[in-house]
Amino acid sequence: MGTAMKKSLSKQIGAWFLGLLLLTVVVSTLWNYYSTRDAIIEVETENMEACAKMISGTLDNVGLEALRGDKGSDDYTMIRQSVRNQCRGFRLIYIIIYSLEPKTGHREILLEVASNPEADTLMEQGKLTVPAQSLFQVEAENAFLEGSNEIQRGEWSAERKQISWRAVYRPKEIGEIAVICMTDGLEMEISQIREDFLTDILTPTIVLSLAFLILVILLRRRVAEPIRSISERMKSFAKNSTVQPEPLNIHSGDEIEEIAVSFEKMTADISTYVRNIERLTQERLETDVQMNVAGRIQFGMVQERKNLKIGAFWISALTRPAKSVGGDFYDCFRRDDGNICLMIGDVSGKGISGAIFMALVKTMVREKLAVGLSPAEALNRANVEVMLQNPEGLFATVFAAEVNLRTGEMRYANAGHNYPVLLGGEPRILKPNNGIALGLFDDAEVVDEVLTIGVGQGLLLYTDGLTEAINARREAFGMGRLLETLKEEPAGENLGGENPAEEVLMRISRAVGKFCEGVEPFDDIAALMICQEDEENEPGTEEEQDECAREGARNGFRPIPAALSSFDIIRETVFACAGNTEKTRKALLACDEALANIVNYSGATELSFACEKREDGLEIVFVDNGIPFDPTAEIASEKQFEHMDNGGMGLNLIRQTVSSFQYEQKDGKNLFTMIFPL
């Protein structure tokens, strides 16, 4: 609001009161004028009636004929003196008595007197007469002739404005009437009105004005100034709501004090609320950073995507946490005796608690499988350890297996996990002897069972987040939809294709994604597929595959998915190119950070990777179609913890690891080259 529109409260109150005072004075003046005038006229009428009555009484004693007789007679002199006394007594200018003939309208002036001696003498001598237009008034005479006895009032102007009162005198003799004309000056009436105005209006006006002034001063001190103080504190508080203003110290004992107390309480509450919001925001930011770090740690333990080719077996796995981190996990590795070990599990918690418990269970089961224990022994022993290290009472369902590469025989055990699905021909649900989930009871009662995976066959393992995925209509994906999806190629008579395990998981992932489109994930999802490929499609030994990987890395760029799971491909390629050494492992840390920045922040949909061993070191190049960003342009500096989620920690790690790096944009793509010392 502009300054011109702002009005002081005290000025507004003063303007309203002044207007009200003026209106009161005007209305009172008009009312007083007319009421005073009416009152004065009423008093004058009574006086004139009394005067006319006295004159009429005198005329009754002597009659009208005495006024027509000798002007020097005693009766005439007595009547004239009496009428003149009435004129002076009632403060009139003059009194005139004239007769009126009803039939002819003839008028005869019988007596003229004036209160002024000089004027009276002239009237007596007939040298001073009153103008006929002021003396004779037809309306009053007609009223008298019609029988009215009420006194008549009229005004006329000559040299000065005058008031005439006319009364009728009806003599005992019938035949004529007399009119008594009594004249007064208007100045007297005006003077009386002015005197009453000064008495009735001016004094109350002065009293009201003083009362108004006192009221304005009180309102200014008790209302306007406290409200102005509150307004200024509000403006100051609006600029910095984290600092509570100084107390107002208003102790008026009325509503203004209540407003001040409420304002102070409100500012205290808001200041506390804002500080809490800032603290919660800071904590949330730190939590988000920690969740991001935890998610990356978890992706290191349970990668988003994984594909392995060991002998004639393809193994593919994927996971999708409902939050930044989750409780579903899988693992697959080759044991020293050459057998493949697999596991998939689902813990009861979610978020950070589920991720920590997942890491505990996964590590316990893996280390027991790695030392050669059967799946049932590994699960039963892990259950005992979980019971000893589980104060929160969490539990986990786990399916574990070992596969003999030569015979295809799988020994497996199930601790309360979902039933697996056997593929190769009509999909079939296997229902092994289910044990009890780990962490519930001292004895999980898990036993080993045996299954042979033939050529063209596979086994699908999954967590309940897959079948219990919910769509917008609150329907679950369910086992029926999963089996229908598995009946499609390449899950026909025999599993085939370049990587049949990955193709099956991708088809399931697409089906679940389409089913749950527009709905936030309800639960973590993990799935693992192992299959033995058809002999016609067998690509060769592991050594031959490694050689192919080295050759591909030397010959140029290799397209990889724009996902964190591509780190497995990068790691295998780097080890194939430069070996598994301390130097290459440090280089892989920098590669992991570079990949994370591309995937998380560039929005790239295409990504290629090249690795070459040179005389000056190991050269690694990333090419992506994401948002242009030059990591070499930012000056390395130590950053606060809350800013490390923006990539600063990764860039510093890259700078500390490389011997040199370079960025350029070419043909709409980002080329990021790093050279690591060997």
Overall description:
By secondary structure, this protein is an alpha+beta fold. The protein folds into four domains: 9-189, 2-Layer Sandwich (Beta-Lactamase), CATH 3.30.450; 241-302, no CATH class; 310-536, Phosphatase 2c, domain 1 (4-Layer Sandwich); 539-678, 2-Layer Sandwich (Heat Shock Protein 90), CATH 3.30.565. The chain is built from 17 helices and 21 strands. The chain has helices at 9-62, 65-68, 74-89, 117-124, 132-135, 138-145, 186-239, 255-301, 351-370, 375-388, 464-467, 478-486, 500-515, 542-555, 567-578, 582-602, 648-657, and strands at 94-100, 107-114, 152-157, 161-169, 177-185, 305-310, 313-320, 328-334, 340-347, 396-403, 409-415, 421-423, 428-429, 449-452, 458-462, 525-532, 558-560, 607-614, 617-624, 660-666, 669-676. The strands form four sheets. A six-stranded antiparallel β-sheet has the order 6-7-16-15-12-13. A five-stranded antiparallel β-sheet has the order 2-1-5-4-3. Helix 1 (9-62) packs antiparallel against helix 3. The longest helix has 54 residues, at 9-62. The protein is rod-shaped and about 175 Å long. Mean pLDDT is 80; it is low at 1-5, 536-555 and 635-647.
The order of strands across the largest sheet is 6-7-16-15-12-13
Secondary-structure content class:
alpha+beta
Give the helix tally. Answer: 17
- Tally of domains: 4
Second rung of CATH, namely the architecture of the largest domain: 4-Layer Sandwich
Total strand segments: 21
Uncertain segments are 1-5, 536-555, 635-647
CATH class of the largest domain: Alpha Beta
